[in-house]
Amino acid sequence: MSEFDYDLFVIGAGSGGVRASRIAASHGARVAVAEEYRVGGTCVIRGCVPKKLLVYGAHFAEDIHDARKFGWDVPECRFDWNVLRDNVLAEVDRLEGLYGQTLDNHKVTVFRTRATIVGPQKVRLADGTELTAGRILIATGGWPHVPDFPGSEHAITSNEVFHLETLPKRIMIAGGGYIANEFAGIFNEFGSQVTIVNRGDTILRGYDEQIRDRLLQISMTKGIHFKFNVPFRSIEKNDDGTLTVHLENCDPFIVDAVLMATGRVPNTKGIGLEEVGVELDEQGAIKVDETNQSSVPSIYAVGDVTNRIQLTPVAIREGQAFADSVFGGKPTVVDYQNVPSAVFSHPPIGAVGMTEAEARNKLGSVRIYTSDFRAMKNVLAGRNERALYKMVVNAATDQVVGLHMIGPDAPEILQAAAIAVKAGLTKADFDATVALHPSMAEELVLLK
């Protein structure tokens, strides 16, 4: 019998923690996981899954309008936030149950409580119970960052936005990243007056400049307002429940809600990491090597808590690699090159590989191919909104090193195209592929 209560104790039952738990258990390990909130983590409970359902709901605003151009006699329609909100939350409940069922099926012990580390191989539950484990895995994810200024407590984050009692008629969104732009598109389609406030001068830092400029142009055309280089001074709550927002060098704004989408930070505070010698970086992320091992040999970490790439599929891969390596006898290292990503804005963005600027800095000589077009559906619907596809090619080798797209269904198209970039295919390989007509995706093999 082992000298420990468990072979593996996981703190955090999000995407990475659940995958690591069930795979380790399938390899024969005795596994326990502690989750202080809800099984499923950020993505399932308060992130990409409920967000994407809101995105689907928001698309109907334009689809219903466009349907009239396609011959449908559509009466005037009214959107009911409460119906969508409650249906989304019910789906979250269903998914949480499935995640819990998966752990049960793999005989993983689940403690629905907070756990902290009190030794290299010891954890303490909220009720004081102490348990030992041969290895401890930290998978506590990230947490919304809220800037510190007077009245910031009156703002909400992406954690609370799915539970709003009423749809705000006027909403201010702080930030310029994917969360800010996604919710800006969602609330704008629902009929809210949306203002994005960014203390910097660009949106979607890290994405290709042409693509993010196109999203900015389309968003403004749709009626979303932007304020750049504007820090917050304060927020005051009024007697009627509205908020007065004071910004630097701006007149005050009166809104119904302020959503802070100013980034996410690793969720490492107060769980005992530093006390047992686990090294953190300046952002509070756990420092790990390529095997996900921290500075304490018995403690590992996967997912957003390491701040490598904050994407759910990456956390899942890391959890799988950890379990296979440590308990399955199959040493596995995650490859972080050419990880595709998407922004579910209106319209959405898909991207993989190097941006044009990154390629020029790294490779020197590059070739750029673009297609700037109106989707067939938009033409008949009378929409001037244009899609933009961009291919970045290494001029020396003809290898496609980046694909960047904005337009209807861009993420769905990009997923398959990302395989080609990952495989190192060339522009000639794209050119040799017969177009699938009529489709938007065919533009990828017709770029000149």
Quickly describe the structure.
The chain is an alpha/beta fold and 448 residues long. It has helices at residues 15-26, 41-46, 48-67, 81-105, 178-189, 209-221, 312-327, 356-363, 376-381, 410-422, 427-431, and strands spanning 6-11, 31-34, 109-111, 115-119, 122-125, 130-138, 142-144, 170-174, 193-198, 225-228, 232-237, 243-247, 253-255, 257-260, 264-266, 299-301, 341-343, 349-353, 366-373, 387-394, 400-406.
Give the overall silhouette: globular
CATH superfamily of the largest domain: FAD/NAD(P)-binding domain
Question: What class, by secondary structure content?
Answer: alpha/beta
Number of helices: 11
Number of strands: 21
CATH topology of the largest domain: FAD/NAD(P)-binding domain
**Chain-averaged pLDDT:** 96
Q: How is this structure best described in words?
A:
By secondary structure, this protein is α/β, with parallel strands linked by helices. The protein folds into three domains: 6-144 and 265-327, 3-Layer(bba) Sandwich (FAD/NAD(P)-binding domain), CATH 3.50.50; 152-262, FAD/NAD(P)-binding domain (3-Layer(bba) Sandwich), CATH 3.50.50; 347-445, FAD/NAD-linked reductase, C-terminal dimerisation domain (Enolase-like, domain 1, 2-Layer Sandwich), CATH 3.30.390. Helices cover 30% and strands 23% of the residues. It has eleven helices and 21 strands. The protein has helices at 15-26, 41-46, 48-67, 81-105, 178-189, 209-221, 312-327, 356-363, 376-381, 410-422, 427-431; strands at residues 6-11, 31-34, 109-111, 115-119, 122-125, 130-138, 142-144, 170-174, 193-198, 225-228, 232-237, 243-247, 253-255, 257-260, 264-266, 299-301, 341-343, 349-353, 366-373, 387-394, 400-406. The strands form five sheets. Strands 1, 2, 3, 4, 5, 6 and 16 form a seven-stranded mixed beta sheet that branches. The chain has a five-stranded antiparallel beta sheet with strand order 17-18-21-20-19, sandwiched between helices. A four-stranded parallel beta sheet has the order 10-9-8-14, with helices on one face. Strand 11 (232-237) and strand 12 (243-247) form a beta hairpin. Helix 1 (15-26) packs parallel to helix 7, helix 3 (48-67) packs antiparallel against helix 4 (81-105) and helix 3 (48-67) packs parallel to helix 5. It is globular and about 70 Å long.
